[in-house]
């Protein structure tokens, strides 16, 4: 376990960098032309999102949560 002490300005910069990188990955995941990078990008996005959850608010996290598209027949109401 590692700890990190940052001030408010550094926190804002970290949030900005994580948001920018996650936006780029989400854009790539939606692009059908990029098949070979999808699996790596999903793993990278999950790591970045876990970091983002540590420094941002719940509302901001909800904006970057990926939606699961797998629905089972029994759960449709």
Note down, in words, how this protein is organized.
It is a single chain. This protein has three helices and no strands. The longest helix has 23 residues. It is mostly helical.
What is the fold's blueprint, element by element?
Elements: H1 8-30, H2 38-55, H3 58-64
Helix pairs in contact: 1-2
Give the structure's gist in a few sentences:
The protein has 77 residues and is mainly alpha-helical.
Any key phrases for this structure?
elongated; mainly alpha
Mean pLDDT equals 81
Helix vs. strand class: mainly alpha
Low-confidence stretches: 73-77
Could you tell me how far the N terminus lies from the C terminus, measured between alpha carbons in angstroms?
43 Å
Instruction: Summarize the helix and strand pattern as letters.
Output: HHH
Give a count of the beta strands, DSSP E runs of length 2 or more.
0
Can you summarize the main beta sheet? none
- What fraction of the residues are assigned to beta strands by DSSP? under 5%
Outline: elongated
Could you tell me the radius of gyration in angstroms? 15 Å
* Number of DSSP helical runs: 3
What is the helical fraction, as a range of percent?
Answer: 55-70%
